Amino acid sequence: MDNTINENKDVSQKLYTLFRRCSHSLSRGHQYGGSMHPSQFRILMLISKKESVTQGELLAIMGIRAASLSQLLCKIERKGLISRSKDLEDKRSVVISITDLGEAVLKESMNDQQTKFKELFSSLSEEEQFNLSNLLEKLLTSWNEDCYYNSDKRNKNQRRKRMCGHSYKERHGNDGD
Questions:
Q1: DSSP-assigned states of every residue in 29-85
Q2: Is residue 58 a contact partner of residue 96, using CB atoms and an 8 Å limit?
Q3: Are 47 and 91 found together in one domain?
Q4: Is 177 within the bounds of a domain?
Q5: Is 140 inside any structural domain?
Q6: Confidence (pTM)
Q7: Same structural domain for residues 86 and 134?
Q8: Overall number of domains in the chain
């Protein structure tokens, strides 16, 4: 019995390590070809889906700091892939549009990306890719449900603490759920 527990622990630990290594490789942009950073690619994709978008809208979608977005937009604009102009209706707002060059570069990058994605999983058969996809979806669903449940419990406790000056747990020794 102890052997089984140790083997399960070893497999879990190995899976975690492998996930971290895969995550690290993907976060470093190894799957992307060309000279475009993944964030720049994402911005071009978002802008190309609409005729134009405000900087505020991009900020809300991207979920990054205003200074970081501004820096990314400057880099993309210097390459001639986007143009920025004042909104005619709201002078405080900046409208961002993709240029013809931006559309062409985006199209080429998308083709390069598709090729890279195929290469990334080429060591797996189609069946293995399908199975891996299903397993990863199952894990993500489970993790997201756990995260939602745990964050909901934390939020309840924080609300109780703000309203009553203490959390339920502090007063009663449990979460009350």
A1: TTT--SS--HHHHHHHHHHHHSSEEEHHHHHHHHTS-HHHHHHHHHHHHHTTSEEEE
A2: yes
A3: yes
A4: no
A5: yes
A6: 0.59
A7: no
A8: 3
The three-state secondary structure class of 94 is strand
Which pLDDT tens digit goes with each residue over 11-24? 889 999 998 998 88
Examine the domain organization and report whether 115 and 47 are in the same domain: yes
Q: Give the domain-ending residue among 120, 136, 161.
A: 120
Secondary-structure breakdown of the chain: helix, strand, coil percentages, each rounded to the nearest 5? 70, 5, 25
Q: What is the pLDDT of residues 88-123, one digit of tens each?
A: 887 788 889 999 999 999 999 888 888 888 888 999
- Containing structural domain, residue 164: 121-169
What is the structure's pLDDT at 80?
95
How far are the Cα atoms of 155, 164, 168 from residue 152, in angstroms, in the given order?
A: 5, 18, 14
12, 92, 116, 120, 130 from 124: Cα distances, Å: 22, 51, 14, 9, 9
Note whether 114 and 40 are same-domain residues: yes
Residue 50, in any domain of the structure: yes
Measured CA angle at 8 (ends 5, 9), to 5 deg: 85
Token pair, residue 177, equals: 């759920």
Count other Cβ atoms within 10 Å, centred on residue 98.
Answer: 24
144 DSSP β-pair partners: none
Q: Are 116 and 110 in contact (CB under 8 A)?
A: no
